[in-house]
């Protein structure tokens, strides 16, 4: 079973060359953390809003248990919200700390968002993964409600 990290373009109408690759050390840390609880993590860097929406729609249970979602420049895109409403998968949303608009933080009608994590890339990705792993193991009955994944 897997978790997928979907990373949208960092610039509006971004091309793939504009997308920052995830730091190798961060990726290794995420892989190790997921492996500790018997999970895998896949990372997809997406070049456009359309590719991000298609990737959200393509994720299916039981192969994928949760999504870590870094919308990048697509944070204000209502189509992303609609794609998430159609998805039954739990997800953790990742946002840079400089985005503080309350309307962006709480889209209505989405019940499968586990958490919203704000901060700098490496910290937020590790925290988002920890939250998703905790949710998955609790849902599977593998962890007491008061325990936490480290």
From TrEMBL:
<comment type="subunit">
    <text>Homododecamer.</text>
</comment>
<dbReference type="InterPro" id="IPR036441">
    <property type="entry name" value="DHquinase_II_sf"/>
</dbReference>
<protein>
    <recommendedName>
        <fullName>3-dehydroquinate dehydratase</fullName>
        <ecNumber>4.2.1.10</ecNumber>
    </recommendedName>
</protein>
<comment type="pathway">
    <text>Metabolic intermediate biosynthesis; chorismate biosynthesis; chorismate from D-erythrose 4-phosphate and phosphoenolpyruvate: step 3/7.</text>
</comment>
<comment type="similarity">
    <text>Belongs to the type-II 3-dehydroquinase family.</text>
</comment>
<keyword id="KW-0456">Lyase</keyword>
């Amino acid at each position: 079973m897997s978790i997928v990290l979907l990373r949208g373009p960092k610039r509006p109408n971004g091309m793939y060359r504009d997308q920052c690759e995830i730091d190798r050390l961060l990726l290794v840390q995420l892989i190790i953390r997921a492996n500790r609880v018997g999970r895998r993590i896949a990372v997809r860097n997406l070049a456009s809003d359309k590719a991000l929406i298609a990737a959200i729609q393509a994720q299916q249970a039981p192969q994928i248990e949760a999504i870590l979602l870094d919308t990048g420049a697509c944070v204000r895109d209502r189509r992303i919200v609609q794609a998430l409403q159609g998805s039954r998968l739990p997800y953790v949303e990742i946002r840079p700390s400089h985005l503080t608009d309350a309307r962006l933080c709480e889209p209505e009608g989405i019940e499968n968002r586990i958490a919203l994590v704000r901060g700098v890339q490496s910290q937020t990705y590790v925290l988002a993964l920890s939250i998703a792993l905790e949710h998955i193991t609790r849902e599977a009955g593998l962890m007491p409600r008061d325990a936490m994944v480290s």
